[in-house]
Design a protein that fits this description.
This protein is α/β, with parallel strands linked by helices. It folds into two domains: 1-101 and 266-361, Isopropylmalate Dehydrogenase (3-Layer(aba) Sandwich); 119-257, Isopropylmalate Dehydrogenase. 41% of the residues lie in helices and 21% in strands. It is built from twelve helices and 14 strands. The protein has helices at residues 13-32, 45-51, 57-65, 89-98, 122-125, 165-180, 196-209, 222-231, 243-254, 294-306, 311-326, 344-360, and strands at 2-10, 35-40, 68-73, 103-109, 129-135, 147-151, 154-158, 185-190, 216-221, 238-241, 264-268, 273-277, 329-331, 340-342. A ten-stranded mixed β-sheet has the order 2-1-3-12-11-4-5-10-8-9, sandwiched between helices. The two termini are 25 Å apart. The structure holds 3-isopropylmalic acid (IPM) and magnesium ion. Magnesium ion is lined by residues 247, 251. Magnesium ion binds next to α9.
Amino acid sequence: MSKSIVLLPGDGIGVEVIHEAEKLIDCICDLYGVEIKTEKHLVGGASLDASDIPVKDEVIEACKKADAVLLGAVGGPKWDNNPPEKRPEKALLRLRKDLGLYNNLRPVTVFSSLKNASPLRPEVVDGVDLLVVRELTGGLYFGQPKEIIEKDGEEVGIDTMTYTVTEIERIAIAAFEAAKGRSKKVTSVDKANILASSQLWRKTVTRIAEQYPEIELEHMLVDNCAMQLIRNPSQFDVILTENMFGDILSDEAAMLTGSIGMLPSASLGDGTGMYEPVHGSAPDIAGKNMANPLATLASTALMFRYSLDEESIASDIEAAIAKVLNAGYNCMDMSRHARKVLSTSEMGEKIIETLKDIHAA
Ligand code: IPM
Ligand code: MG
């Protein structure tokens, strides 16, 4: 059966890393006999340059029709001073909202060969394998009112943190379901000592937990969680949290691995899923064949798992990545911890070569 994928390279290194994903997908079609049609569209700064809008309606429609979307990165200094509606990041927020992608999964795995790469001591990060389940279409990012107004003779900036029971329930269910296939522990992170939305969050998550007696649930305040991630990250299995807390904590958790350059993500909802590396467009190294494509290739694996129903392809890609890392290869961002440093395209080719070996074995 033929599947269709929309590729959204975006800006900066997004273009280079998506190119490597394309090569990998081509190879997978040959190797595993699957048929995948890809189409490519502009988003972010690239779309602003071409049509003065961060993402066109027809691109959103193409994404809705596809089986999955693979995105590189958006943004860059060229567009940093644009007004809010003309910022590249707006494309991401629209895609998330319009595709209903409320469930953002960000797995953080410390590979044993890279436990020295973290700024934390190796014995602190060794064995870390956690999953941040971030609510992605609610909270401060989308709550209304959201504006700058004039009040008592000065400007006032307003953002609103709102959560409905329905929004909390569905992301809680996603976290408990994810925990089933892992170490069966959910840490729900909130600020229930201060925020009304967090009090509702805690009450709702506690109620949903009753349907999952086999899963251990603990509640943790977000400031404490930020500390515990550094103090003892191995205590975590699934971290369930709202949009803004998840944004911050997932960058913090990323550093346990030594580089944000290796972390994949999946954004899921009721329709098409979207997959993207956690890193940004890295304008400083864009176009230099220096970016680490592993986060995008790992995101491609997640795409095969969650949207294309090809678990064995997903686990073969993940096995290829682990094998290449354990053999001492890595990219510039991890150069101090690699026996051999590869360029973007060399890493892409190394993964393909290794996948072929794994498939043949
Ligand atoms: C992320 C990013 C985005 C976010 C930005 C680029 C809008 O930081 O995916 O974590 O804040 O969600
Ligand atoms: Mg972020």
